[in-house]
Amino acid sequence: MIQKTYAITSLVDWKAQISAGKAKVIVHFTGGAITAYGITPAEYTTSNPFFQHVIENSDYFKNGRITLLREAEVADDASTKARKEREEERKEQTEKPVTVADERREDEQTSVEIGDANATDGDADAVSDGETDSDDGKTVVEASCREDVVEYLKTNFDYTATQLRTKGALMQALTEHNLVVVGFEL
Asked: What DSSP character marks residue 30?
């Protein structure tokens, strides 16, 4: 991919409105400076072929007001690669329709894996998601951080993250559902 930098001399900032057919494209030249040592032109850098085409076919470029300052070959950036990967995933998803039965199987596999990972040997009170019942009737939830507790409440009691964003709201939810958190202090 080619990255081009265009310059506009004698201006420190300029929003050019360039016609592209019936539409107008706004190109913002920035970074210019006028000092005692000289003039630094305002610049616009792009690797987008559409903007390059619009600028190079404009009257401003043809009459020399906009000039090509430099041109460089650059590798595709991460966002371009990510966009291409998303497009490929969409193509694959449209080729193979996902059924409700497929989603249920994935959910069942996930719950089995969680249960296996959290089960303890010889503890009859162990539940599949890290909770145990205490002697005073409260449910003990093991968590390593605040986000774990919020996620537990969202999953098991239909809370939203917004409802649990303060410590007071989190403590109230734990009290309402008779829960005690171990593993870290809130």
From this structure: B
